[in-house]
Amino acid sequence: MEWKPLPIGVESFEELLTKGYYFVDKTLFIRALLNMKGKVNLFTRPRRFGKTLNMSMLRYFFEMNEDNRALFEGTKIMSAGEEYLKWMGQFPVISLSLKSMKQPTFELSLEMLKQAVAEEYGRHWKLVESDPNLSDAKRERYLRIRDWKGMEADYASALKFLSECLYDCTGKKSVILIDEYDVPLENAYFAGFYGKMIALIRSLFESALKTNENLEFSVVTGCLRISRESIFTGLNNLKIMSITADAYAEYFGFTPDEVEEMLRFYDLDKNLKTVRQWYDGYQFGSTEVYNPWSVINYVDSCRTNKDAFARPYWSNTSSNSIVRTLVEKADMSAKQEIEALIEGKTITKPIHEDITYEDMDSTQDNLWNFLFFTGYLKKIRERQEGETIYMEMAIPNSEVRYVYKNTVLRWFEEKTDKKELSPLYESILNGNTEKMAEILSENLMETISFYDYQESYYHGFLAGMLKNIGNYIVLSNRESGNGRPDILLKYPSVRGKAVIIEIKVSKTYQELEKKCDEALRQIEEQRYEEELRQEGYQNIMKYGVAFYRKECMAKLG
Question: How many Å apart are CA 411 and CA 390, to the nearest integer?
Fold first, then answer.
């Protein structure tokens, strides 16, 4: 079988169809959209779930271009009936992506908006260039925007003005497609110019979608629903389809049938279990959904090796800023909940869709909302109490669990690196076991564990706490005597101190002292200090340290 290329990173419907890529037919999305008859339709889905490709499909279907009809030959929409096909090629289509506005400053973000708008004006120029119905004043303003010479006010109403010009020249209202509308908002929140960006995007939307008599209908996509008050002010004709809605659920992401068909096509049926474990688990409405970006990347990796290991493709592309914010602001209960999630358990939180980035810091619950709507958590079940909907949630799959386990742990390590730990070091070198245990317990409370509290976890934790001890050399699991002490601290000169630390894990809080004694006995029986004596060290301290979950005890031998 000839290997059919997979459309990794292909976001153009025309390119997908004309260059022979593997094609998952989502064209019945058009039928569903026409049936709904929404004036302004907002679809929110996590990143990399096919929003941009669907928007490209809509553009090629509705746009006034006879050549586009050939792209849809043999697709499902062509068999849907004349009531849908009569819409094909009937409208000027304004297509704008705000993805490029993810920039470090407001000024640069605005420049990228100008560029995107200018390109769309340029794309329609042939249609309006010599049309006598367009006045000289409008043509002059059109060229000013096309040539990237407009004022900020020109761009705030640029979509409305373009639809006006297109109506003058064609006599038809425009279909307006706005992709990734919330990218500049998320970016502006984290970059510190959210207020300015909200004002700009609100002006763009109000003029194009609220007070625009030349609008046929509009489709807007993004990752989150930003509340009506901040963006969709007074937009009474807005229809919202988030991941909680049953409608349209099968048109973003891959359904189980589509994944199984793809695996059969590439003779990878036996890989279904791996694909399901790593990339399945999302729930849009009541529909089970796979992550399409990760599935096609994994299948592509099997081109030369059908037993290729699954990898976290989505986590390498998606912005983790929201997860990082959760971690940095997490209180004690939130840390315990993250641990529970990583262990495969569930949490239950109130869910609401009217959120803004400004709300993120107001309560911990808002952060769980962000994680849910951006794909880091999935719905298990929901219930309603009064006016509040409570969602039981879990980590969707192994790929997302990888994000939590690796990214989250690294961020906690970074926080530890910034801590002032000299009191810990002093307590160890001065033999103050109570203070030593107290500081270690406090720091354990602030970490996240997902290794069932195995000895390796505590060993890594303690070694990490000691790595910045300063004038001492830290050796971990180094050969010494008849075995390996867990941690050795050595002053560079043998006139200074050496410290031997042996770690044990207790099954109960009551056994902590017994485990400390066991660790001290091991130091003696395995003669861990022998090599240090041979090197010339005289002042050798020996610690037995025992852990039970997030409690610690230390004894000096």
Answer: 29
Tokens of 282: 């999302």
368: part of which helix (H) or strand (E)? Answer: helix 364-373
Q: Provide the CATH number for the domain formed by 32-67+89-241 in this structure.
A: 3.40.50
* DSSP sequence for 79-101: GS-HHHHTTTT-B-EEEEE-GGG
- What letter does residue 3 receive in the DSSP assignment? P
Q: Where are the domains of the chain?
A: 32-67+89-241, 251-311, 321-405, 419-556
399-418 pLDDT, tens digit per residue, is 999 888 877 767 766 766 67
Which residues of the chain, if any, have pLDDT below 50? 228, 479-481
Is residue 291 within 8 Å of 253, Cβ to Cβ? yes
Q: Which residues of 156-187 are buried (b: 16+ CB within 10 A; e: fewer)?
A: bbbbbbbbbbbbbbbeebbbbbbbbbbbbbbb
Q: How far apart are CA 37 and CA 557, in angstroms?
A: 78
What does the block give as tokens for 326?
């959760």
Report in angstroms the alpha-carbon separations of 474 from 413, 427, 492, 501.
Answer: 17, 16, 10, 11
Structure tokens at 59: 């553009």
Say what the pLDDT of residue 479 is.
47
Report the chain's mean pLDDT, rounded to a whole number.
89
Angle at 246 between CA 245 and CA 247, to 5 degrees: 95
